[in-house]
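> @MW can you paste both from yesterday?
MW: sure, first one:
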Amino acid sequence: MSKRKMTKLEKRLNKTQRDGLEIKFPKRVFVLWFQYVQFIDDKKGVYEDWNIKEGHKFDVWWERNWKRLFSESIRGVRKIQTIPKKEKGVESIYIEVPINKTQGDLVSEFEKLIKTEFRERGINKQKVFDSEGKWIPEVTRQFDYNVCKLNLECLKRHKKKNSKTGKKYTRSEIGLELKIHQGGDKHNRERMVSRHIQNGKKTLEMVKKGRFK
């Protein structure tokens, strides 16, 4: 099965890099963090620095705050003329690349070198992203945006009344509205919704402490 291509919107949400600054996390991670923050009652002022106003739309808020809250200087693989002095807090290795070999051989050798370096340093390639930003999400590269968003949507409905019935949402109604386990039986649908609600609550408790994972 071929991998689904990202839409233009998804690509726009997936990376921010501008003015010599970048965000090392997919932008949509911050979309979700923002939505969770809007859902909590931040009595302790944990997110005072975020300057979120009631009714704020994410895109407008993001443009005003991403550099200050989440960005860091762009760093990546680059060509250098001389090996610089070791910068505090910067993890880099410098290698010599002979240009009298084939590209395939060089790529293969480079891959082996990096794997060895990671193993010797005890670095897990699936580790949480490193970032110098003031606010750092604690998510891995396997972070499932859609599941985390569904957790929040279930939690939101769990806390309010169904406009159609005027009564509090049942778990079955939440499942049907969010198209969870549509073809299955009611019991399994309710069980899945309950799991989404519980996971949403766990994320919410972390968010209240200024963390997102």
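MW: second:
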Amino acid sequence: MMFKPHWIMLAKPLLIAFAGVVMLRIFREGLQDYSRFIYDAFLRAGLGYENISAALAAVQLGIVALIFWPLIKARAVRATWRFELCDEQIVWRHGVFNRYVEEIEIAEIVGVNLFESITGRIFGFSTVLIDTRGRDTLVMPMIGGGRTFANQALEAKRRLRRTVGNFPA
């Protein structure tokens, strides 16, 4: 069964982008109020009028990049992270430019822990922590349907234990 990060991970970057657009709007309006001061400062520095528009455009471009980078990053993470629960293993595929694949055998699982905030309970996402013998903990953040994932992982371990016999826990 395939799981992926919840859509809620886009909420914070969207709020940052909205606040940034408001700040950019204020910045542009403020430029009109302080344009005489900015022009005088450029002339005193000996930079001339032709450099003013390039500098202000660079500042605005930097603000736009800072505004939208968290949103782009969160969207890329949501698009590329996949958690797959098979009968014998859990596979976590992630990475935008470099692809990482982490696999854990169901037999290696010692425990499955679940963290759900109040927001997570309302919107249906949680962070799943899988404790294994060979590795301390695999943390899978903000999974949509994390409770289902944790229950199915434990059920897969029980099925494997019944089928194979008693293996070390």
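> thanks! DSSP finds five helices and seven strands in the chain.
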